[in-house]
Specification:
By secondary structure, the chain is of the alpha+beta class. Helix content is about 40%, strand content about 25%. Helix 2 runs parallel beside helix 4. The protein is globular, with a radius of gyration of 23 Å.
Length: about 325
């Protein structure tokens, strides 16, 4: 019996030593939880993942899995933020639920007939992610993605009951469809989601300006991709200025030809708010502001001098303002 027990300890030790675990924080997450808590989070995550997959290594919040499994890598970035918002006594349950949902989502995907595009139509959707986040998680080589907003990727996904799952290229290639066609179908599915929208009047340096918003915890950002259909009343003669700080909320300013420069007041007033929405959310998207016109998004450059924001209008908007005078 003693020899059996000793053998089990040796096997377990070999298994743990085979996994290369680096407890260094992912960049930018050092202040979310303590070093000890992060170590505990990594250990519990590896334990939860190992129920269904073989873990090779952990480094700076990125978990590499053995090749040939459902996922190549998993990340802890969102999980760190989720855990930071609740008491530590809830962490084990949260961590297990997080990775169990990913596994269940993949199992559900396997049950779908990947060869039959028609069976997947209702599950198609779009999620927007930071460019840096996508690159950290393996890049876009095996994803179906496009760039609508500078600094981000719009990724084609399946909205399954327990989780959102990216559509891999090997699945997509079975459909013999063009990406534009599938993205259009996915956007129509997004547009079916219920969402909150409204407009508020605020004071900006002694002037009254109207700020509009779209809210939906999972789809707010994706809904804004088709603003002309989802909120045409938020589009002015010269388009709109849009901020999408996270997946759940969008801030919008309608540019009118009567007061074409008021969008600068909107940016100056809302920039700190947008940055806060970005920093405090587990799935941030962008701190930038974009000019939306004719279905296209153009990044607005902003400089800071002596504590003040200097807004540089896109060339297209400048030309449009000159024509509309």
């Amino acid at each position: 019996m003693k020899n059996i027990f000793t053998s089990l300890i040796i096997i377990l030790s070999l298994k743990l030593s085979a996994q290369k675990i680096d407890y260094s924080f992912p960049e930018g997450y050092e202040n979310e939880i303590s070093k000890k808590d992060y170590t505990d989070l990594v250990n519990e995550s590896v334990k939860a993942i190992s129920k269904n997959y073989k873990v090779v290594s952990v480094e700076k919040g990125v978990i590499e899995l053995e090749k040939g499994q459902d996922y190549n890598i998993l990340n802890l970035h969102n999980l760190i933020l989720k855990c930071s918002e609740v008491g530590k006594e809830k962490w084990i349950s949260l961590i297990n639920s997080h990775f169990d949902s990913m596994y269940e989502s993949m199992e559900k995907q396997k049950q779908l007939d990947q060869n039959k595009f028609e069976t997947l139509i209702d599950y198609l959707t779009i999620r927007i992610y930071q460019e840096s986040f996508v690159i950290q998680n393996g890049g876009i080589d095996n994803l179906i993605a496009k760039k609508d907003l500078d600094g981000t990727f719009s990724v084609l996904m399946l909205d399954l009951p327990s989780a959102f799952t990216p559509i891999k290229k090997d699945m997509f290639n079975l459909w013999n469809k063009k990406s534009d066609e599938v993205f259009n179908i996915a956007q129509k599915n997004v547009n079916k989601q219920e969402f909150t929208k409204g407009t508020e009047t605020i004071d900006a340096d002694g002037q009254k300006i109207d700020i509009s918003f779209i809210e939906n915890e999972n789809y707010g950002a994706s809904i804004a991709l088709d603003l002309k259909n989802n909120a045409p009343e938020f589009i002015g003669e010269l388009g709109s200025v849009i901020a999408i700080p996270n997946k759940g909320i969008v801030n919008i300013f309608k540019i009118s030809k009567n007061k074409p420069l008021d969008f600068m007041l909107f940016i100056q007033k809302c920039k700190p708010i947008v940055e806060n929405f970005f920093n405090q959310h587990p799935q941030p998207i962008s701190k930038d502001f974009y000019w939306y016109y004719s279905g296209k998004f153009t990044k607005i450059n902003i400089a800071e001098k002596n504590g003040e924001f200097i807004v540089i209008a896109p060339i297209g908007l400048t030309e449009l303002m000159a024509v509309k005078k």
